[in-house]
Fold this sequence. Notes:
The complex is a heterodimer. Chain A has helices at residues 2-10, 12-29, 35-55, 63-84, 87-90, 92-95, 103-130, 142-166, 170-184, 198-207, 209-223, 229-260. By secondary structure, chain A is mainly alpha-helical. Chain A has one domain (2-260). Chain A is globular, with a radius of gyration of 19 Å. Chain B is an alpha/beta fold. Classes of the chains: A mainly alpha, B alpha/beta.
Amino acid sequence: MKRFFMDTKKFSQYLVYATKSELKSEVANSRLSWLWWILDPLLFMLVYTFISLIVFQKGMPYFPVFVFIGLTIWNFFNKTVQTSVKLVKINSAIVSKIYVPKYIFIMKQMLINGFKMCISFILVFFLMLIYRVPLDWRFIYVVPLLATLFVVTFGVSTIMLHIGVFIDDLSNVVSVLLRLLFYMSGVFYSIENSGIPDPFGTLIQTMNPIACIMQGMRNALLYGEDFHFIAIGCWFVGGIFISLIGVNIIYKNENSYVKVM
Amino acid sequence: MEYAIDVENVSITYKCVKSRSIKKSLFSFKKSDVQLVEAVRDVSFRIPQGEIVGIVGKNGSGKSTMLRAIAGIFTPDSGTIDLHGHSISLLAIGVGFQKALTGRENIMLTGTLLGFSEKYMFEKMDEIIEFAELGKFIDMPVKTYSSGMFSKLSFSITANLKTDIMLVDEVLSVGDAKFKKKSYEKMKELISDEKRTVVIVSHNMDTLKKLCSRIIWLHDGELKMYGEVQKVLDAYIEFMDK
């Protein structure tokens, strides 16, 4: 535990600098550059809104904002977990020359995706203005909800990073699982109003941390309602627990990662 | 005498755990087709502070493995390595460069990765850039560099970021003749600091003779000889000529 905080502090400057330069190189490499950080979620929001409203004729109040919030959270989780599988391989040049606690790479990924999420949230705010969503004091719930999202994402990623070193095609499996999770998280529909028969509906809603966080976020920002305190609380503690296990596994095994490559 | 590096009974085994596919993990009943390769076997030596030690040995005799273990990149399977709290850096060609970023940004990245502060790096930046002699290339992405420029940059980064112990892996012969001479002078300057300990892996007998105060000879992962430069090198050359 102590070592974790010491190491994180030691590499914090690297983290900040690496994140900055990675974002910069992303901008430098594409024509529309930073506009993509806005366009990407915006366009996907249009796609899902179209499918739900026109094709399935199901909607919620403030539906585009509803979808946008879902996508924002989903993108953060999805991208971080998806890349974590290959992180050691991507960074093999560093790993084989300098000692770095390997979870630092996950943190870097979370900072990068977190930055994009911030931009998305600014857009959410503008969309809320456009749709004249009444602002409730519950918007401060965003803080505990995001904290839960961070620990859960970090925990899952540490374990994926470890297994990903030893199993080559894990990323295929992970993409399928993530896709399943995507549809079970209610990114573009409301699980409660979807007509899933009850024991299953509630189960999907509470057993899936992403669905839980998403619903909480929408309640807090759009509908002025509370989130599921018990479920989020459990997932927060669970996330910390998984992170602890993951960091421990990485510390124990990271020195043999180099030998595999 | 104060010691900078204590290596005691170190053995390192590569398990050749090839990363495998899920199908193989599920359907192959042979569970242990793990090949063991002993890269370093029961090696012990102590390096006093301020000494310049060369490591020689034929290809695949465990020299680079030894260096990486000392640098803490992987832990030995048995035995211990004690650095007595000294800071350490491994100088090898192309330390974790990000190809899409410019040389300047890569200097920053490598520096902070080695644990130096951003402020310190800003101070050192000009010195490193000047030494590397890359001209306008310093603000171009690293992927546009030639291999010589690549190693020049990595040499000047590590040579200008001073740590207590420096491990040098066959990079003294980088760049053109002029840069070679310059890096050799730089090495000598670094070495002249009495507190700095340097370990060099090289095949260049000349360099070793001029720079080092002791030589370690590794053969097939075992310590064959450790001692005075002339004695060990003579024995080594004789052995290799056979």
